[in-house]
Write a structure and sequence with these properties.
This protein has about 280 residues and is of the alpha/beta class. It is built from eight helices and 13 strands. It has one domain (about 15-215, about 245-265): Stationary-phase Survival Protein Sure Homolog, Chain: A (3-Layer(aba) Sandwich), CATH 3.40.1210.10. Helix 2 (about 50-60) packs across helix 6 (about 170-180) and helix 3 packs parallel to helix 5. It binds manganese (II) ion (MN).
Length: about 280
């Protein structure tokens, strides 16, 4: 188990001493002993009100660093920018934008941009759900996954709405969730995917631990003609609902509960591996 405030790694002594020194310097500089350090990112861009809501909501429980894309990067999944330089702009102390993807932001932040090692990565609050299949495409979830890959506990948060966003309850729940799971922490290589129904706090029914559900989209491709006569395409797809399977994120949110889905990065199909192996054949 990885505690949110007390990482346990098998690392060389010099590294521990270096980290201890960095921590002491940081504590001295910030006079902020014992507070959790939280890295925030998102995929809607640094200007998103969802990100601002998290910054405000989590400032009560931790020391916040924000590193987020300089523009909307939804559906970028786990894209990493490898073929051009990345530019970082410090907008204010501890608040930076990057002309890259959500994963670029978290990777940069955790591998040198920040002067400290965060205890937690939180991504969001996304404008729109990340339920079921959405998770595969989501830049919001991938920013959290990058935290997990780099050994930092992570949470992705999304608001299940596409308009008139009110992030109040989602930000408040996220702060409470972080406080309540601080001990014993969440297992290494697990991240939490949180989806909050767009309801006032007193109308939310509570929260549930869930599994990934299955959403249905129409697979529309819209073909149009540009002013110069060339064809172009929009990837579309109308929301056709979801599979009503018990215990899923989709059903919980539909019923008015906040959904908390523990996700793992290991995509291995353990069931097939152990129970129904592929036919053995010699090759070559
Ligand atoms: Mn988004």
């Amino acid at each position: 188990m990885v505690s949110l405030s007390n990482h346990a790694y098998s690392v060389p002594l010099w590294w521990i001493l270096l980290q201890a020194r960095i921590t002491l310097v940081r504590l001295h500089l910030l006079c902020d002993n014992g507070r959790m350090i939280i890295l925030l990112s998102n995929d809607d861009g640094i200007q998103s009100e969802g990100l601002t809501a998290l910054e405000k909501g989590l400032a009560k429980i931790g020391e916040i660093y924000t590193v987020a894309p300089d523009r909307a990067q939804s559906s970028m999944s786990h894209a990493l920018t490898l073929h051009r330089p990345l530019r970082v702009h410090e907008l204010s102390p501890r608040r930076m934008s990057v002309d890259g993807t959500p994963v670029d932001c978290v990777k940069l932040a955790l591998t040198g941009l920040l002067p400290v090692k965060p205890d937690l990565v939180v991504s969001g609050i996304n404008k729109g759900p990340n339920l079921g299949d959405d998770i595969i495409y989501s830049g919001t979830v991938s920013a959290a996954i990058e935290g997990t890959l780099l050994g930092i506990p992570a949470i992705a948060v999304s608001l299940v709405s596409f308009e008139n966003f009110d992030f109040t309850a989602a930000a408040e729940f996220t702060a409470t969730l972080i406080e309540r799971i601080q001990q014993p922490g969440i297992p290494a290589e697990t991240l939490l995917n949180v989806n909050v129904p767009h309801l006032p706090k007193d109308e939310l029914k509570g929260w549930k631990l869930t599994r990934m559900g299955k959403r249905h989209y129409s697979e529309n491709i819209v073909e149009r003609i540009d002013p110069r006569g060339g064809k172009y395409y929009w990837i579309g797809g109308d929301d056709l609902g979801f599979a009503h399977d018990d215990g899923t994120d989709c059903v919980a949110v539909h019923e008015g509960f906040i959904s908390v889905t523990p996700l793992q990065v290991d995509l291995t199909d353990h069931k097939l591996l152990h129970e129904a192996p592929l036919p053995h054949f010699p090759w070559p």
